[in-house]
Design a protein that fits this description.
Low-confidence stretches: none
Shape: globular
Largest sheet: 4 strands, antiparallel
CATH architecture: Alpha-Beta Complex
Order of helices and strands: HHEEEEEHHEEEEEEEEEE
Strand content: 15-25%
Bound molecules: 2-amino-4-trifluoromethylsulfanyl-butyric acid, cobalt (II) ion
Mean pLDDT: 98
CATH class: Alpha Beta
Structural class: alpha+beta
Length: 253
């Protein structure tokens, strides 16, 4: 694995500022998840709120991505493109993924929202996916933790529920760049032997499926869905390893 940058305390505070704005935008975007709204309307809110607070939506124009954020419904695993024809309806589960640039630094976070009443099955998936993020963070904060401990912890928990962990998309280092070294795998692996060192800043963002792990990309070149059509859920935080644990950088203030 290539060298992983150690961020200075000053850089970490700048990432925390960007992360807080991303998190605050995400909470407000989530409040819009009601039956009848289009995902494009939510995306417009994200763009406007971000700009109004001095930020830039990192997704817009990133490798040609056309919108401010990603909004992924039901069987969409990630990178759902907001559109006027995608209208939320009762029972939908929605991931909104927001990455904000502030003063040159990125903060990246996502969460699940439900539209009206959802099935018990969907609620359990959402809850377990959140626990998967939390257990990954906890593993990363243990003394002497290695990057491979994150995926081990996440897959271990997902399997207890008979869920699968998506392998086609990963977490990533983050800072001045949107996607930096290292790569974060959310599944059990023997590759990521590097130690997680104080000052390493990265995301954990497991995508958990009720059915199989395989995904496919739609013809728009972005939208990833489960191959078997099963529901998928994802949560994401940007975090920093400290001397004795983990500090979450994408918390609203
Ligand atoms: N925010 C996503 C991530 O967690 C990346 C989205 S890239 C985009 O890494 F271009 F689709 F927006
Ligand atoms: Co990310
Ligand atoms: Co993200």
């Amino acid at each position: 694995m290539a060298r992983i940058k150690i961020k200075s305390p000053k850089e970490i505070e700048l990432i925390r500022d960007a992360g807080a704005l991303a998190a605050e935008t995400l909470i407000r975007a989530g409040e819009l998840c009601k039956p009848g709204i289009s995902t494009l309307e939510i995306d417009h809110f994200v763009g406007e709120y971000t700009e109004k607070h001095g930020g830039i939506s990192a997704c817009l124009g990133y490798r040609g991505y056309p919108k401010n954020c990603c909004i992924s419904l039901n069987e969409v695993v990630c990178h759902g493109i907001p559109g006027s024809g995608t209208i939320l309806k009762e029972g939908d589960i929605v991931n909104i993924d927001i990455t904000t640039i502030l003063a040159g630094y990125h903060g990246d976070t996502s969460a699940m929202f439900s539209v009206g009443r959802i099935s018990k099955e969907a609620q359990e998936l959402i809850d377990v996916a959140k626990e998967c993020l939390e257990t990954g963070i906890e593993a990363a904060g243990k003394p002497g933790a290695k990057y491979l401990d994150i995926g081990g912890a996440i897959q271990g928990l997902a399997e207890e529920y008979g869920y699968s962990v998506v392998e086609d998309y990963c977490g990533h280092g983050i800072g001045r760049g949107f996607h930096e070294e290292p790569l974060i795998l959310h599944f059990r692996n023997r590759e990521l032997k590097a130690l997680i060192e104080p000052g390493h800043v990265f995301t954990i963002e497991p995508m958990i499926n009720i059915g199989r792990a395989s995904t496919k990309t739609l013809s728009d070149g972005w939208t990833a869905i489960t191959k078997d059509g099963s529901l998928s859920a994802q949560w994401e935080h940007t975090i920093v390893r400290t001397k004795d644990g983990i500090d979450i950088l994408t918390l609203a203030r």
